[in-house]
Amino acid sequence: MGRLAGFKYRDIVKKLKQFGFEFDRQASGSHEIWCNAVTRRYTTIPNHPGDMPEGTLRAILKQAGVDQAEFLRC
């Protein structure tokens, strides 16, 4: 297990809100689009039960332009 393992949807959303992200719209199925008005970056977050796969969380952070270390710190 890596450092990004074990995060749930709620934990990820809570942390992304601290970086200025807000819910934008519902995408297909259980996916949501979140945006940051300041940086004008978008990211897609799947709203699934259980832990988010580490690779998926890494992709979310890359889309959002959030450093992994900063995400883990806050």
Give a structural overview.
This protein is α+β, with helices and mostly antiparallel strands and 74 residues long. The chain has a single domain, classed as Metal Transport, Frataxin, Chain A. The protein is built from three helices and three strands; from the N terminus they run H-E-E-E-H-H. Strands 1-2-3 form a three-stranded antiparallel sheet. The protein is globular. The two termini are 20 Å apart.
Task: Provide the fold topology.
Blueprint: H1 9-18, E1 21-26, E2 31-36, E3 41-46, H2 54-64, H3 68-73
State the name of the first-level CATH class: Alpha Beta
The topology string of helices and strands comes to: HEEEHH
Instruction: Please state the structural category.
Output: alpha+beta
What is the CATH topology descriptor?
Metal Transport, Frataxin, Chain A
For CATH, the homologous superfamily is named as Hypothetical protein
Q: Report the end-to-end length measured between terminal Cα atoms.
A: 20 Å
- The fraction of residues assigned to DSSP E strands is 15-25%
Radius of gyration: 11 Å
How many DSSP-defined strands?
Answer: 3
